[in-house]
Amino acid sequence: MVGKKIQTLLMLVLTASILGACSSSKVVSNNSNTKVVKIGITQIAEHPALDSARKGFLEALKSKGYEEGKNLKVDYENAQGDMATTQTIAQNFVSNKENLILAIATPSAQAAFNATKNIPIVITAVTDPVKAGLAKSLEKPDTNVTGTSDNVSIEKQIELLKQLIPKSKNVGVIYNTSESNSEVQVESLKKAAPNYNLNVVTAGVTNVNEIPQALSSILGSIDVLYIPTDNMVASSMPLITNQCYSKNIPVIGSEKGEVTNGALATTGIDYNKLGFETGLIAVDIINGKSPKEIPIVTSSEMQIVINTDAAKKLNITIPQDINSKAEKITGGVK
After folding, report:
1. What pLDDT, in 10s, does the model give residues 205-235?
2. pLDDT of residue 1
3. Nearest Cα to 227, choosing from 271, 175, 278?
4. Vertex 257, ends 44 and 199: CA angle to 5°?
């Protein structure tokens, strides 16, 4: 009798073990063994350059096998130009325990860095990460931040400006005084301008509503307007080009998106390629590398872009040596 009871007990234990194994197998099957990487993307505002950088970032992840809906979960948030919102977004990403944060543009990068010193932060479209307080150096960040910078040679921009408007003497620049990214570019312009017999006339703004008045204050004393990679100003390009072109003042942009929205020309970088490079850096971090040891890189590829509608509007003839190698686009001009 005792033997039978032991036999029955053993059968019950064996059955429970089998059922347990089946149950465990079912959970693995439903959830899979694939590790899902959680990435929070914070972007300061919508405009073509930043959108292209984000798109390139995701393309790079996909090229290395990371896809949304499979092994990648992306939480994308746009601050719509509001600085306080960038802080909220960053804090939420920290609370959500994202594996990595992509910060697009300087304000979003600074907000993310303020919120965490532990979660890896990959940046893009940040002109001067060191001056912004994000890294100790480009070669060795020594923080939880690395990525790419959109810093470009201001000399290349001025050379194009002088080739297209050779008689120009006074160049205006309108920029957001609260964005360190823009201040860096304005200082670079001021430093380089005398080498090209140019005088710089500045107009600083703190919000979009100030742009029309600030622009009006300098239009009478400039021959050409230069637009830095300033998120606030770039979002107002139609207003700026309309106001400038009514006075026959050419506008030189610092990136392709500004030309798409009406600027005459630029010598700039491809933000999609910059974002792609950023994505490859993110993959290195996902695979175990520390951001502290990964250099922050810039793009060496420069492309001249000409808006032929703007050239026609301003009655500017593009020199043949520029025209033959430039990418030509239309649109954005009233």
Report:
1. 999 999 999 999 999 999 999 999 888 898 8
2. 47
3. 175
4. 95
Cα separation, 84 vs 239, in Å, equals: 25
R_g over Cα of the chain: 26
Say how many C-beta atoms besides its own lie within 10 A of residue 298's C-beta: 16
Query: pTM of this prediction?
Result: 0.79
Long-range pairs for 322-325: beta carbons < 8 A, 24 or more residues apart: 322/160, 322/163, 322/164
Distance of CA 209 to CAs 45, 88, 251, Å? 16, 24, 20
Q: What share of the chain has pLDDT > 90, as a percent?
A: 77
Identify the pLDDT of residue 33: 55
Which tokens hold the place of 170?
A: 């006074």
Q: Which CATH class is domain 154-268+302-329?
A: alpha beta
Strand-pairing partners, residue 77, are 42
CATH topology of domain 37-150+270-298: Rossmann fold (3.40.50)
pLDDT of residue 113 exceeding 90, the answer is yes
For range 40-59, the mean pLDDT: 94
The structural domains of the chain, with segments of one domain joined by +, span 37-150+270-298, 154-268+302-329
| Confidence (pLDDT) at 299 | 84
